[in-house]
Amino acid sequence: MSRLEVSVDYAAIARNVSRLAGMAPGAAVMAVVKADAYGHGLVDAAAAAREGGATWLGVAQPDEALALRAAGDTGRVLCWLYGPELPARGLIRAGVDLSASSLPVLDTIVAAARMSGERARVHIAIDTGLSREGVRPEALPALLDAALAADDAVEVVGAWSHLAWADRPGDPTIDRQAAVFREALVVIEERGIALEVRHLANSAATLTCPDLHFDLVRPGIAVYGLPPVPDGGGGDWGLEPAMRVTASLALVKDVPAGEGVSYGHEYTTPRDTRLGLVTAGYSDGIFRSAGNGRGPVAVGGRALRIVGRVCMDQVVLDLGPDATERAGDQVVLIGADGPSARDWAEAAGTIDYEIVCRFGGLKEKQRP
Ligand SMILES: *Cc1c(COP(=O)(O)O)cnc(C)c1O
């Protein structure tokens, strides 16, 4: 029996994408499915996103783009994270759009396109202030000149950037980055390049910055139903979390007051009680930092927290003296009837992105 069951509601992913499309009526939607679709399963999540209306898919790594093609996806896919060693030939053959952040990467793409006799579709990545991927604005003209000089091999179809602080609506970096982006677009268009798509907005900007939707929005976390920002009215934009994580009680036993629980005895039973053992630990994705009254679960509709340290493959719950649960009963770690990924993030001192990547990354996904 698997120790943690991770199930994904793919229909919820389709509905989330369709909601996001409704919130960006002037733009196309690129569902970001990097990192195994944030732990939700690349191929099935991508198919669900397509069903929901994503005309584009976005991935970081070349092998993710090729996996989408191998699974039969024939729509637009953009891949953006690699150095000059990228396997450009295979990606161009597969009809994957490629991002270019630098001259060495562009050179690889040009050489591969010439060898394969196919023109590469390229999106120029602009570093507007995140200082991660992208060409700095002062280096943009040289990159554009190189792309134009190789226009037998590459077609510049897109320009994009990424925001540093979109999850803090109103943060001054958002407008500053948008202004740098707009200036870069002018530089590109002044060279006679007719862009098919200009794109800047991640989930938070898709939800809160309608002026930054341009031609295409690139939501990731919201596709999986996790709101990057509250909707202002205490709501969650109608997004539906797609991932459910459960385990089961392997053992339930009565223990007297005053017994130390788990390594280091950081918890001592405060009264005669009934303990439940769950056979999932940090090797299954449960953060070790979520022990000692932090990691949330629900058992029989009751909210409980892990007691004592999180071990490699098990944790203990104090079910209370009157508990009626028995071995085999379900423990909900993440679900509509239990804690959220955000609850886990707060317990573990991280963000919900890392929670779903981690739980999802270590476990098999099953279709409901
Ligand atoms: C991950 C990523 C996104 C999606 O970000 P979310 O915050 O999950 O919406 C969009 N664009 C780029 C370049 C990314 O790396």
End-to-end Cα distance: 17 Å
Number of strands: 18
CATH class of the largest domain: Alpha Beta
Shape: elongated
Beta-strand residue fraction: 15-25%
Specify the structural class: alpha/beta
CATH fold annotation of the largest domain: TIM Barrel
Low-confidence stretches: none
Architecture per CATH nomenclature, i.e. the level-2 architecture of the largest domain: Alpha-Beta Barrel
Q: What compounds sit in this structure?
A: pyridoxal-5'-phosphate
Order of helices and strands: EHEHHEHEHEHEHEHEHEEEEEEEEEHHE
Overall helicity: 25-40%
Number of helical elements: 11
Main beta sheet: 8 strands, parallel, barrel
User: What count of domains describes the coordinates?
Assistant: 2
Structure notes:
This protein is an alpha/beta fold. The protein is built from eleven helices and 18 strands. The mean pLDDT is 96. The radius of gyration is 24 Å and the shape is elongated. 49% of the residues are buried. 31% of the residues lie in helices and 23% in strands. α10 crosses α11. The strands form three sheets. Strands 2-3-4-5-6-7-8-9 form an eight-stranded parallel β-barrel, surrounded by six helices. The protein has a six-stranded antiparallel beta barrel with strand order 10-13-16-15-14-17. A two-stranded antiparallel ribbon has the order 11-12. It has two domains: 10-234, Alpha-Beta Barrel (TIM Barrel); 243-366, Lyase, Ornithine Decarboxylase, Chain A, domain 1 (Beta Barrel). The two termini are 17 Å apart. The structure holds pyridoxal-5'-phosphate. The site of pyridoxal-5'-phosphate has 12 residues, from loops.
